[in-house]
Each structure stands twice: as structure tokens, then as C-alpha cells.
Design goal:
The structure is a single chain. This protein has 304 residues and is α/β, with parallel strands linked by helices. It has 2 domains: 125 residues, Nucleotidyltransferase, domain 5; 123 residues, ATPase, nucleotide binding domain (Nucleotidyltransferase, domain 5, 2-Layer Sandwich). It contains 12 helices and 9 strands. It starts with a strand and ends in a 5-residue tail after the last helix.
Length: 304
Amino acid sequence: MRYYMGIDGGGSGMRVVIINSEHEIITRVEAESANPSGIGLDEAAKRIQAAMNDALRQASLHPNAIAAVGIGIAGASEEHSKGWLQSTTKGVLSAAKVVPSSDVEVALVGAHGGRIGALLIAGTGSVIAGIDGEDQLVRYGGWGYVFGDEGSGYWIGRQALTTVAQAYDHQGPSTILVTRIPAHLGLKGARELIKWVYRGEKVPVQDIAALVPVVLMAAGDGDGVARQIVEMAAHYLAHLSTTLLHRTGLTPAYLKFAGSLISTENRVSNRLCELLELEKIPQAQNEPVIGAALMALNADQPGS
């Protein structure tokens, strides 16, 4: 029996699995984020290797039992970090074949069970990727919260905070978000949002994205500003999707959704399905870490 390891290092955490040649999951490990953009290459490598060793111990496998390893880490795309990804994994699995990739590509492979189709991811951030007619990965979005990620959870939360500030200063339309967001955060009023947002050295990106349920609830209660934010988010994601589909020659039938914002039914995901003329949310077949393991397994096949 041959064994394969998959490593998915998304922005919010890291997952490692070991599967066998029959696609059966032998073990699974959850660990903290290993995004080198936030913690540096050295610390990221240590976390990845620690999680790899944990998986081997849980599976009672010697490192040499792993035939190949697929890895995709946020902040370390294969295009720019191939050498680092290889050296990091070789530090534990010296005999294994290494398949370096990106967190987006392993998610795509997991979603479709193979390197085909397209995947729209919208959670804290937003990005879409697809395979074109020449078997090349095409990727749009994913520019990050400073100058991108339109339609994402962070974008919705930021828009909500902006409209609260404008409404409070009588520079924009009134909205119930002026009272609901501070109340949700346990603040006394809108002005306390300044201290809440600027309370540390870094922008609380995930905390701002976590305001999405408040916006969705306000939209459901008829708030015009919240409804406009939801509509804009859906249109941004739909336009990102149609742009990618046109570039790759794919149809919406080859599109899958992933990410906390659009993988479940809500006003954004439902409206997005309407705009793309999809009957229901196109769910991913597998999680990204399985995609990484499948990439390793496929790389070990004859002729690969």
C-alpha cells in the first residue's frame, strides 16, 4: 500500500491528511496558520514540519512510507515559493516526491476531485481560479483586504462600517447598522468603533469580516443600506466569476463555490446563484486538504 500526504495552509489554519492509494483517509491533523506573510518563512516552516510529524505519528508511519506530498500554503504560491515549499517538506519527507502548489489550486482540485473546472472562494477574502483549455491555472482576485477582495466577508464588513460612519455624520443615508453593529460588539455607540478598529498594530480583518451576519440580518429586516451592500457583493462576485469563465471557456456548470460566505444559503449566495443562473449552490466535492493529497497521488502515477 502506498501513502500520500496533503497539506493545506489556508489563512485561518493548517490541515494535514494522509491517504492511501484507495483514497481512504488514514489520519488528519489540524494546526495553527502557517502563512509566511504573517509569521515569516522560518516560523511557517517549523509549524508545517511539526504538523507533518504529528500526522506521521498518528498514522504510525515512517516518513519513507509517504510516496508523495502535495502542499499549498496561503502566502506562498508555487510560482514564487517552489524552492521553499520543497525544502520545507523535504525536511520531514526526504524520500517523497513533492508537489508544490498554492492554497487556491489545492482547493480547486479538492472541489472537483481533479484539476478541472473553476472554483470561486469567498470567505474573509475573495478569489477565483480555473483551468483553461491548455491545462493552465488562471486566477483572478485574491489581492487582499488593502486593495482587493471585493464581495468578500471583509469587504462587506468594511462597507458596513463605512456606511455607519457616513450615516452618523449625516453624510449618507440612515441605516439601522448605526445601532446594531455597536450593540453586536458590546460598544456603547458608533464612535466607539474607532477604538475597536484601531485597537492594535494590525487591522482586525477577520473581526470585521465577522460583521457579515449583522449586515445580512439588517438586510432581511428591510434596511436599504444593508440590502445595497449585499447586492453589490453578489454583483462583484458574479462579475469575477463570469470574467474567469469567459477567459477559460468554461460554463457555470463547471463552477464550484467555497468559503464561509457562499458555501451556505444566505442573501449573498442566493443572489449570486440568481445572477449566474444556477439552480442551487454548487458545493465542493472535497475540502482543500484532500485536493493536496490527490495532487500527490496523481503525481505518483505512471507517466505523470
